[in-house]
Structures
1.
Amino acid sequence: MNIKEEKQVQNLKHIGVKIVNKCGGLPLAIRVIAKVLASQDHTDNEWKRILAGNAWSMRKLPNELRGALYLSYEALPHQLKQCFLYCALYPEDAAIWRDDITRMWVAEGFIDEQEGQLLEYTAERYYYELIHRNMLQADIYYADHSRCKMHDLLRQLACHLSREECFVGDPESLGTNTMRKVRRILVVTEKETMVLPSIDKDQYKVRTYRTSYKTPLQVDNSLFKQLKYVRVLDLTSSLVQNIPSCIGNLIHLRLLDLDGTNISHLPESIGRIQSLQILNLQRCKNLYSLPLATTQLCNLRRLGLDRTPINQVPNRIGRLKFLNDLRGFPIGGGNDNTKLQDGWNLKELAHLSQLLRFNLTRLERATSCDSTESLLLTEKEHLKVLTLGCSEPTDEAYSKEDVINVEKIFEQLKPPCNLEDLRIWKFFGCRLPTWLGTTHLSSVKFLQLIDCKSCAHLPSIGHLPNLEYLRIDGATAITKIGPEFVGYRVGNLESTEALAFPKLETLLFNNMPNWEEWCFVEEVEKADAVVKEGGEDGTTASKPKGEETLPPWSSSWLLPCLKTLELKNCPKLRSLPRELGQQATNLKELLITEATCLKTVEDLRFLSGYLLVGDCEGLERVSNLPQVRELLVSDCPNLRSVEELRNLEQLLLSKEMQEISMLWVSQLQEQRRQLHGDELEVNEWL
């Protein structure tokens, strides 16, 4: 850095301090103004302009909304301003789901078409940009940030700026003049039935009408006659059983959400709503049939059928050429000669070229000949999220022919290489598809294998270069997870020269009642490699506990980014792999529950956040966790030794652990005083 650049940095620092001082110590204000400054030119004039802006003293705004908060809104591009203000329709502290809010933005017309881009791509980009600017707060428990919230002060700002067009409350309380101006309504009321004020339907200009999910409300059929200009009609979980045929007159309707309602049919008049883009029928437990007119919805972009017992569908779904989100594609054995069939054939996938998110169900009903028509999924260049599933199992055992058929079907449903999120569930074959264990899925970030109960071996997925999240749940046939899981083959040490799970951050195992052994390298080969590293006499120098010598090829080859590891309901698992303590250098959170046979948790020298152990009846010792900060223990009656936790700051114990832990708690307290000069914080874990 030359003298001129150094002076520039000092000037900006001086101005930045003044701006921070104007934030009044409010962390939110500091975070949002930091993003504003980062998005501007780094010049004295630009930062001085922000410092001297009118936003700091705007009299039209409440005091708490002036300054940094309003500046952060003003700095948004026009299209993001609309999207931000729309979030005022969510109640305080409500969860905002990415897929829901982005669909509403699309339906409202906030998203501009860009050449070669789906509207949904652009909407998601806006969503993540608002998170990046700290205008929305990502939920840390969702790795893909698919859920977020809005800070109460930012919500107040959005409500204030959109107060004439957005209304949250009981619309029946609004006067006629106010109602004429309102464009968006979220119904929140103590009443049992939602009712609109009695004014001429032509005076209603409402574009979005939503009901609160917390209190199910009765829907009066007059609603469908009054909302003449509505674009977004979200009746999720409302007490509605019948949709009147007059819904076909809502010619501006783009989004109809009936998720969780008790409807038993949809009228054929729905086919007249040519503007309809999104039809969500998920969790409609009494809906068994789709109207024939469904395939007339030529602009439909999303059809949601997940967890709805649909067994009658119109043929030729391929006519819906803009469909990019299809949740719950039921496979059936019908043919093209019938108007209604019990499900769709796999060959109809050939016409759905825009698919972005796709969920196939009842795959055991497919036949392999269906998939010879084309490459099916492989050529879906937009496909990012895919779920492949079978029906809920019954008491009747699957035949050998059933197993062979389902394995063949899954093998033929090879996803495109650009897929990012894959979920396989209720698969009853004995062998998962081979494409899962190859480098074909190089873009996959999220992988879930759920209730694959007959698979005794996991595929080799350690080589997936972009995998960030892995969940294995309900793999009841697995007894051992060995080196093949990470891509290491017996007798081939060179195979581990590449990183295994190079980007994996979250690893979850759940409900694996027969899993006994977990290793990354076979013990015999590990010992041989260690001997080769030693002197001519085959000996090796002794190492401190927890730092045993590893083969030369094994230094930093495994799980370098792993942050969270969870093991739940794995009662037969005897031990953790030694390599976890030597390789997982970024491990922050370890949660172990219902691991009855696990006797020790030790030598995890990089674990730096918390360790939670619960319902581990056989656990006897926790030791050599030099960086762990927090320990939580519940229902571990045989835990007699907890030691070498040099940086432990907080200990939480369940009530039943209070007495049996007295000895090692006092030792930990004494260690804390000697090393850090303060007291260990010990509390009851409620």
2.
Amino acid sequence: MSTIRVTLFGPFRVQSGEANLTGQFSYKAQELLCYLLLHRDHPHQRETLASILWGDENTTAQSRKTLRQTLWQLQTTLNSSIESGHGLVLRVEGDLIELNLGEAVWLDTAVFEQAFAAVQGVPGPEMSASDAQALHRAVELYRADLLEGWYQDWCLYERERFQNMYLMLLDKLMGYCEARYNYEDGLIYGMRILRYDGARERTHRRLMRLYCLAGDRSAALRQFQRCAAALEDELGVTPSRRTMMLYEQIREDQLTPMLPASPAPTTIPGSAAASLSEVLSSLRQIEAALTDLQRQVQRESEAVTAPLKGQR
């Protein structure tokens, strides 16, 4: 039994094994199929579907007729192209219409949404390695915007929704990479975010940090300049106080790396988790003390060298 691969990122495509089935669907059948795929969690009223997909037609009766004809076309194509019971199953019961995915169907947006749901509420630095791997696979599926070239209202809304999810996943991956000192991959994820949202100040800050922590302070300072230019060009504003503080830290070479993230608490016995929490707390205190000591030594050094400079 061949896997039915349906891709909605980029141009719509249906493939069974080596056979491309996309051309067997009329344009209206493609539109109906894609809408049902993206809203497959519940059945839909005929009138609602007709209004959403073809509400711009002259009359309600005409849009319902278009839906009726398109349903027949879609059902015929599914029955003739895809093995019954294992692929895309269109269920029409009275006024309700629903699309079910058979066991042999792979849908890129479904995999993407599953990865997104799995890390809801989990900060990037706290994700597990398996979570990060799943997110990496998910963002690689996003080869282009949803249903590229389609401009229906419902499609524009879904496109923006998936794009927002994509940017959130990239942001989590940036945080994960920084927490594990994988600065190179973190930079790659950040650049992908800026391709979609060039004035995303949070991402510019993270890129500044990653460049600096990777040992390229000059690149970090250049990133600040790009941030300031993007904010001015797109929003007419200047960098926030938080961004300016980070810029000063980098310029004065006072940026410290993030501590490694602790393992997920569900994998650690209670006593071990408590001990780990105490260790991390102690490490943070040590880090703060070392920072204070470094600044104190620097001040004392400057105080000693100042009179010598005056004698020259």
3.
Amino acid sequence: MFSDISHERQQSLLRQRNLFALTSACLGFALVVAGSLAATRDREVVLVPTIPKQLMVSSAGVEADYLELVTRDAALVLLNRSPEGLDYWMNEILKLADPASFGQLKAELVRIVEEQRGSDVTQAFVIRSMTVDPKGLTSDVTGTLKTFVGAQVIASDERRFRFSWTYRGLRLALAGFAQLPPQDKSKEAQ
């Protein structure tokens, strides 16, 4: 009798062990399939078709070429403005904003919009040079800032601006911008 109970108990444990092994094998196989699908899945990133070469965005960091192109577009949007398009101008810049810097950027832009609304002052910026630092996520843009009242140029000055960026996930976002003091020409010659 004890041998029958012992045999029955051993058979029950054997069935449990076999069921556990089968379940583990199935889960392991499912994990391998899911891992291979994730690794070989095509990843599509659509970039602007006007760029001269193919760029790739990865979680490893920002390429210098990509940072330069984004800075160029941001600088042209940010530094070219007229009273007729101020709302569009502000909304487009805020689309680039980092969520952590959104409030501060919006406050700066609202101040600019309130100053310029109803005036005839238009601003145009022509980029002369740009330096980017993909590690520090900053870019400096130098160029000529022209100010117009109506059709007449009232100022044309050499200006430098620094753009600060954040990179989270695969999104490069504007954290801030500032005008820098002009570079000393004697330092540039060295």
